[in-house]
Amino acid sequence: MPRFQPNNLEYNKILYERVNEMAKKKGCTPAQLSLAWIHHQGNDVVPIPRTTKIENLEENIGTLFIKLTPEEMDELESIASSISIKRARNIASMLTYRDIETPLLSSWSA
């Protein structure tokens, strides 16, 4: 994957190290901290992590108990906005969903 090539990897490790350091202080994993940050963005934002293992599901559920202060939210926002990820994961597969809009809730049927 392009983002794991030597030049890009070194740059992207900076972001990871900053998040990892903060996660250690909070007593959680970097993945949990990232999900908690998304969860704290507001009532209209919900992280939807994909998992195939029960232990990962349990870890994801644990993010609901991570409380972030306004200062921690500011720090995470600063980290996220200060560094841009070098090279996407899989650009071709992402382009498939580029112009898709979620259907109106009223159009859904159960």
UniProtKB/TrEMBL annotation:
This is NADP-dependent oxidoreductase domain-containing protein. Keywords: NADP, Oxidoreductase. One of its GO terms (molecular function) is oxidoreductase activity. InterPro entries: Aldo-Keto_reductase, NAD(P)_OxRdtase_dom_sf, NADP_OxRdtase_dom. Residues 9-79 form the NADP-dependent oxidoreductase domain. Pfam families: Aldo_ket_red.
